[in-house]
């Protein structure tokens, strides 16, 4: 890594880091400050990162640590380090469907996501949306890779089982109505 | 249970799964929850399920992939809106500034060990007091006009002792006050405080007066170092109190403060109190100038104005207090402390700015035409005792000349 790479890494990951940070339900300003710290930290520690493939993982870990320490400072109870919110929502705008149907998709997925714990949402976000390996996600969540696998598996299972079947039928019905 | 039991169970499971695999049309697939979940979260279990599906209905492979491509446009985003392009650019700028600051700091550490251990505080004191300060308040303030006013006739550095005795000190000479309150000038003991009770001893204050074109260097009883610039009056106790260390200044000083957590160090000017939180610092102050400022080289200082507002500044920052407003900006501290080395150092600086610094150092006024003020200069100027030597240096390197009348120096371009 070289000094001038910081700008490159910023262009590449700043938006993703912001999206990840904002999921913790904290102010935009706090997320922006945290991202600034993360990149300055990257600048100071760049000699330690030999493999550019590790930069993304480094940035995400670093941002998570920063946010946890901010939340810890805000919290009256220093011990409640695992108690944080992580919110996700579905975005169906890219789908080639009617807008009402898009809304139905978003509704369905949001219902499913609400069945999960914050940690489960964070894990599936990092693994499936940010394409981080089980090992990387495990480090960010501060659990073992095995537990990560289990956490994600249970999350998907919960979503599969959790929603009443009539909801899906309703979706089908609506799509039927629109196609005719 | 024997192997048979296991086989039966496996068979049952497989059979059950087969039963669950119902052939679907593309439209059905994209509305199927399991299918949607597979598209978004391809777990091993779901992968196996759809592998089985294709084993049963291999002709549906194209249909399945097409449905999958449609559903995969679904995204999971986090709450709120994404970073705006303005937020993106502003943050990038902040990060670049932070990096530049770190690079500068590293470079500076290499250049000067001394500077690395220091803080620079630059205070420009307003002679015309703020309208909001009443005369009563003025009296309670430690810096009254009488106590810290420089006699314009004075030509040499003077040290006025607590017992009213005044002595001349050679220019740029070290004055040392030891922990017992003994004063030495160039290693010659000149004053021994009467061994009275400590309460009397601590209340004794000395005043150092440095006229224009002169500098002085002082070592305080706690071994803190003070560089005193031209046109400055500094009041400091014979011995510091047990709970704080306080000095008063009108002019410009640069300090390296010895660390002592039990006795915080304060620098007081007519408009602010500076509390030193780091290890070293440097102060400069002129009552007659419009704005006061503090430049920090290293460490941390807190500045309080007369309204009780506190502002902390970090290294490479300059705080300016002007018309009751405190503003902080980034600067290269050496541009403000090079006078301690007896030089003015500048790079691509306007001639106008250089004349400003010279006028502060020599306490004179320049009259410079606007077209010359924007003239860019780089280099060093040695701050000779006599301003004329400095002006002659400028004259030989720039297409300018000067004329002096009544304390005002007129600068004008020379004819080519």
Identify the most extensive interface between protein chains: A-B, 50 and 37 residues
- Supply the CATH architecture of the largest domain in chain A: Orthogonal Bundle
Helical content class of chain B: 25-40%
Distance between the termini of chain A: 58 Å
Spatial shape of chain B? elongated
Keywords (chain A): Membrane, Sigma factor, Transcription, Transcription regulation, Transmembrane, Transmembrane helix
Protein name (chain A): Sigma-70 family RNA polymerase sigma factor
Family (chain A): Belongs to the sigma-70 factor family. ECF subfamily.
Transmembrane segments (chain A): 163-179
Structure characterization notes:
- The complex is a heterodimer of chains A (180) and B (416).
- Chain A is mainly α.
- Chain A has 2 domains: 5-74; 99-179, Arc Repressor Mutant, subunit A, CATH 1.10.10.10.
- Helix content of chain A is 69%, strand content 2%.
- In chain A, helix 1 (5-22) crosses helix 3, helix 2 packs across helix 3 and helix 5 (118-129) crosses helix 7 (145-162).
- The longest helix of chain A has 20 residues, at 55-74.
- Chain A starts with a helix and ends with a helix.
- The model of chain A has no long low-confidence stretch (mean pLDDT 82).
- Chain B has 416 residues and is α+β, with helices and mostly antiparallel strands.
- Chain B folds into 3 domains: 13-71, no CATH class; 114-333, Jelly Rolls (Sandwich), CATH 2.60.120; 342-413, Phage tail protein beta-alpha-beta fold (3-Layer(bab) Sandwich).
- Helices cover 31% and strands 28% of the residues of chain B.
- Chain B is built from 13 helices and 24 strands.
- Chain B has helices at 3-20, 26-30, 33-40, 44-56, 61-71, 85-111, 113-116, 135-140, 198-203, 334-337, 351-362, 370-373, 387-397, and strands at residues 75-78, 157-160, 166-169, 174-177, 183-185, 188-191, 205-210, 216-219, 225-228, 232-237, 245-250, 253-256, 265-268, 272-276, 292-296, 301-305, 310-313, 317-322, 325-330, 343-350, 365-367, 376-382, 400-405, 408-413.
- In chain B, strand 2 and strand 3 (166-169) form a beta hairpin.
- Chain B is elongated.
- Residues 1-12, 114-146 and 192-202 of chain B have low confidence and may be disordered.
- Classes of the chains: A mainly alpha (180), B alpha+beta (416).
- Chains A and B meet through helix 1, helix 2, strand 1, helix 4 and helix 5 of A and helix 3, strand 1 and helix 6 of B.
């Amino acid at each position: 890594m070289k000094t001038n790479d910081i700008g490159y890494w910023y262009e590449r990951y700043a938006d993703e880091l912001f999206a990840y940070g904002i999921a913790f339900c904290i102010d935009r300003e706090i997320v922006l400050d945290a991202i600034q710290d993360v990149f300055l930290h990257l600048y100071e520690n760049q000699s330690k990162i030999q493999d550019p493939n590790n930069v993304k993982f480094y940035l995400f870990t670093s941002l998570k640590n920063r946010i946890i320490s901010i939340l810890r400072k805000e919290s009256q109870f220093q011990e409640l380090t695992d108690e944080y919110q992580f919110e996700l929502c579905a975005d169906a705008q890219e789908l080639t469907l009617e807008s009402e149907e898009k809304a139905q998709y978003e509704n369905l997925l949001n219902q499913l996501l609400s069945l999960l714990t914050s940690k489960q949402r964070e894990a599936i976000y990092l693994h499936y949306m940010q394409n981080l390996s089980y090992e990387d996600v495990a480090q960010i969540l501060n659990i073992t890779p095995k537990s990560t696998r289990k956490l994600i598996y249970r999350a998907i299972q919960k979503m599969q089982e959790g929603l009443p079947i009539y909801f899906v039928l309703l979706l089908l019905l609506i799509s039927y109505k629109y196609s005719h | 249970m024997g192997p048979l039991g296991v086989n039966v169970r496996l068979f049952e499971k497989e059979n059950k799964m087969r039963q669950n695999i119902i052939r679907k049309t593309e439209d059905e697939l994209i509305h199927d929850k399991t299918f949607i979940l597979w598209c978004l979260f391809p777990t091993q279990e779901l992968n196996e399920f759809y592998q089985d599906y294709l084993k049963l209905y291999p002709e549906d492979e194209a249909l399945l992939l097409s449905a999958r491509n449609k559903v995969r446009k679904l995204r999971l985003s986090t709450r709120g809106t994404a970073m705006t392009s303005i937020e993106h650019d502003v943050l990038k700028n902040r990060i670049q500034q932070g990096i530049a600051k770190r690079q500068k700091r590293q470079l500076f550490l290499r250049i000067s060990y001394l500077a690395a251990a220091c803080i620079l505080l630059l205070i420009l004191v307003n002679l015309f007091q703020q309208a909001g300060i009443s005369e009563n308040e003025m009296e309670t303030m430690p810096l009254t006009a009488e106590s810290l006013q420089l006699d314009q006739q004075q030509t040499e550095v003077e040290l006025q002792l607590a017992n009213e005795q005044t002595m001349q000190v050679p220019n740029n000479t070290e004055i040392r006050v030891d922990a017992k309150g003994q004063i030495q000038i160039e290693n010659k003991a000149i004053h021994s405080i009467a061994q009275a009770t400590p309460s009397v001893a601590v209340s004794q204050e000395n005043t150092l007066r440095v006229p224009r074109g002169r500098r002085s260097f002082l070592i305080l009883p706690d071994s803190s170092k003070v560089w005193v610039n031209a046109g400055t009056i500094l009041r400091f106790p014979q011995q510091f109190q047990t709970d704080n260390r306080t000095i008063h200044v009108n002019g410009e000083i640069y300090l390296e403060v010895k660390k002592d957590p039990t006795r915080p160090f304060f620098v007081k000017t007519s408009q602010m109190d500076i509390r030193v939180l780091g290890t070293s610092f440097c102060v400069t102050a002129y009552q007659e100038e419009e704005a006061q400022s503090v430049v920090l080289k290293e460490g941390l200082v807190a500045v309080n104005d007369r309204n009780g507002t506190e502002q902390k500044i970090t290294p490479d920052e300059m705080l300016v207090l002007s018309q009751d407003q405190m503003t902080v900006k980034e600067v290269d501290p050496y541009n403000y402390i090079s006078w301690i080395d007896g030089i003015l150092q500048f790079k691509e600086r306007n001639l106008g700015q250089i004349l400003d610094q010279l006028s502060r150092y020599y306490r004179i006024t320049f009259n410079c035409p606007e077209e010359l003020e924007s003239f860019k200069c780089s280099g060093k100027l040695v701050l000779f005792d006599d301003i004329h030597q400095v002006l002659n240096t400028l004259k030989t390197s720039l297409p300018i000349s000067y004329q002096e009348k009544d304390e005002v120096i007129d600068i004008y371009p020379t004819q080519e």
